[in-house]
């Protein structure tokens, strides 16, 4: 495992991913009943933006730093509020030196009676993660394959909560592993909220993941179309060479408020975080009208 998130923490892809995570968790905390947050690929929890990795690859300057510096319209501020408060909590003296990863975002939102289960396979990162939350009674961190852990962890005792699946996806077959894990998880716990992150790098593979999952949910598991929401952001032309140009999430059982928040957020993010020609965004159900018509014809 060569992937180190410290080189990418706080980039444009993290901003969208973590803003969505924060909105979903905040919505779940509107009910008093306890919830469980499960993070299959947790990383180290919080990233030091003054570290050697962040200095050598300052992707955060084109992500979180730009968002913090920009003037934010009211609707954008509202949609970003839960994530912004996690960023501010990690930077109490107002200088951006730390970036909250998904476990830290969750830790800032969960209440004392909620629970958090973190899996991380990289040995050193896993130790760092465990140390970070050692005094937080809500958290259990495990050095464990997050995909394999899912069948043991689902459904959680609380029967309410969110599963974040955020793999490195540096290899093509990882998308297949995520698709398999998605089906296992959703069969075991169909009512949980899920966030699947994937890069827009190999567009064929990501489209196959998205529409495969959405079609399976809609046509084989009888999910309503509004239970699948895909949000993507690209900061330059997706065909352009070089570093990652686009990424996004597929949400399953998202809160009903998420679509409106993302409609306010995505156009602003694509303008604010653009790195060249061809930046853009999309928000849809991961199944196009054409696919639905084809399926009706086939049925
Ligand atoms: C994209 S990073 C996660 C970032 C984190 N979710 C966040 O938002 O702050 C992916 C992480 O997955 C870890 N990893 C890779 N394969 C794994 C597996 N099968 N199970 C658990 N962790 C894995 C990597 O070591 C890396 O830390």
Indicate the mean pLDDT.
95
CATH architecture: 3-Layer(aba) Sandwich
Radius of gyration: 18 Å
Number of helices: 11
Tally of structural domains:
1
Main sheet: which strands, in order across? 5-4-1-6-7-9-8-10
Structural class determined from secondary elements: alpha/beta
Top-tier CATH class: Alpha Beta
Strand elements, count: 10
Q: What's the CATH topology name?
A: Rossmann fold
What string gives the helices and strands in order?
Answer: HEEHHHEHEHEHEHEHEEHEH
Q: What ligand species are in this complex?
A: S-adenosylmethionine
| Largest sheet: number of strands, sense, barrel closure | 8 strands, mixed
Q: At the fourth CATH level, what is the homologous superfamily?
A: Vaccinia Virus protein VP39
Shape: globular
Helix fraction?
Answer: 40-55%
Percentage beta strand: 15-25%
Distance between the termini: 43 Å
Summary?
This protein has 299 residues and is α/β, with parallel strands linked by helices. It has helices spanning 12-28, 52-56, 64-69, 74-90, 102-109, 123-132, 146-153, 173-188, 203-220, 258-272, 289-298, and strands at residues 36-39, 46-48, 98-100, 115-120, 139-143, 161-165, 193-199, 228-234, 246-252, 280-284.
Set down the secondary structure blueprint.
Elements: H1 12-28, E1 36-39, E2 46-48, H2 52-56, H3 64-69, H4 74-90, E3 98-100, H5 102-109, E4 115-120, H6 123-132, E5 139-143, H7 146-153, E6 161-165, H8 173-188, E7 193-199, H9 203-220, E8 228-234, E9 246-252, H10 258-272, E10 280-284, H11 289-298
Parallel strand pairs: 1-4, 1-6, 4-5, 6-7
Antiparallel strand pairs: 2-3, 7-9, 8-9, 8-10
Helix pairs in contact: 1-4, 1-5, 1-10, 4-5, 4-10, 7-8, 8-9
The protein binds S-adenosylmethionine.
Residues 1, 3, 5, 39-43, 101-102, 119-122, 125, 145-147, 166-168 line the site of S-adenosylmethionine.
């Amino acid at each position: 495992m060569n992937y180190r998130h410290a080189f990418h923490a706080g980039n444009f892809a993290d901003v969208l991913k973590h803003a969505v995570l924060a909105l979903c968790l905040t919505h779940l905390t509107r009910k008093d009943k306890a919830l469980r947050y499960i993070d299959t690929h947790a990383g180290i929890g919080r990233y030091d933006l003054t570290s050697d990795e962040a200095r050598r690859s300052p992707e955060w300057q084109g992500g979180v730093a730009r968002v913090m510096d920009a003037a934010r319209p009211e609707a954008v501020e509202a949609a970003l509020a839960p994530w912004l408060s996690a960023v501010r909590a990690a930077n109490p003296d107002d200088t951006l030196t730390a970036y909250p990863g998904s476990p830290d975002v969750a830790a800032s939102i969960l209440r004392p009676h909620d629970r958090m289960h973190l899996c991380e396979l990289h040995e050193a990162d896993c130790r760092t993660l465990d140390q970070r939350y050692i005094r937080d009674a809500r958290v259990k961190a495990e050095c464990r394959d997050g995909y394999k852990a899912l069948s043991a962890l689902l459904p959680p005792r609380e029967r309410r909560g969110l599963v974040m699946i955020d793999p490195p996806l540096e290899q093509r077959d990882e998308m297949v592993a995520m698709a398999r894990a998605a089906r296992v998880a959703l069969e075991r716990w169909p009512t949980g909220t899920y966030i699947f992150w994937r890069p827009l790098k190999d567009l064929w593979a990501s489209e196959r993941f998205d529409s495969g999952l959405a079609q399976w949910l809609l046509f084989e598991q009888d999910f309503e179309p509004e239970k699948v929401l895909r949000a993507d952001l690209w900061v330059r032309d997706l065909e352009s060479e070089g570093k990652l140009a686009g990424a996004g999430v597929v949400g399953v059982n998202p809160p009903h408020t998420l679509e409106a928040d993302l409609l306010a957020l995505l156009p602003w993010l694509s303008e604010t975080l653009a790195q060249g020609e061809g930046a853009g965004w999309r928000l849809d159900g991961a199944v196009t009208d054409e696919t639905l018509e084809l399926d009706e014809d086939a049925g």
